[in-house]
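U., I forgot to send this yesterday:
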Amino acid sequence: SPRPQNTGDLDAWEGPGDNDIRHRFVGSVIANVPLGRHAIARDWLVAGILTAHTGRPFTVTQGSLEGAGWLPNRVAETEGDKTVDNWFNVSDFQVVPAGTFGNAGRNILRGPGWMTVDLSLQRRIEMTNRLAATLRYDVFNLTNRTNFGNPNVDITAGNRATITSLAGDPRSMQF
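Result:
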């Protein structure tokens, strides 16, 4: 988030922190998988993690000057389309003239939520009484869900209210 537009009125800059996540869920499971008695089939382990949280807050601006984010006026509070092409309703905000402080607050809107499922398949191989090895196959973002970043917040820019960044990686695997 940019710095306050009016350092003489820091109360107007109060709002949720940039990393404020209202709801977060993390669940994990680890299970031994009995695939049989054969040497290749035994000693398998499956582990998974589901992580989900609500979106992060963001501040709508009308450009910036020397690191300070100039706020527009908020003239309405309608719901945006919540799509990558139009996350929030730009017409809810009105550009104010230069030298005027807008009334839109800090971090008043929220971006898209985030969710991922990670999975691990492992097999422990005993070599001696004191030596073992683990074969492991990991998949991160198993469902290959696209987790979007926050939208572009400058209402004077051509790409305003659009999402052009990702908040997470696509599916990746390692052995």
